[in-house]
Design a protein that fits this description.
2 helices; about 30% helix; about 80 residues; alpha/beta
């Protein structure tokens, strides 16, 4: 397992699992669901159970903090395509 960074890393592959301990909100969409002050953090027991399950099943996973941003997936897809060129 490796730390997850705010960009696509060369060791990451499509289909790898991402187990996030929390997320930095770089957008306002989530405030329609939760209050702005509500932490975007995983429950520690669920977080640990997911890591253990991925390890037991020998599934590739990346663990750490993530970020949510408007258009994040579209931007990441463009980044991935450009890096493969």
């Amino acid at each position: 397992m490796s730390p997850l960074h705010l960009k696509w890393e060369k060791h990451q592959r499509g289909g790898d699992l991402v187990i996030t301990s929390g997320s930095v909100r770089l957008e306002k969409t989530s405030t329609y669901i939760d209050d702005e002050g509500y932490p975007a953090a995983a429950h520690h027991e669920v977080f640990l159970a997911l890591i253990m399950a991925a390890d037991n099943l020998e599934l590739p996973c990346h663990v750490g903090l993530t970020a949510s941003a408007s258009g994040f997936l579209a931007a990441e897809t463009i980044l991935m395509i450009n890096e493969k060129r």
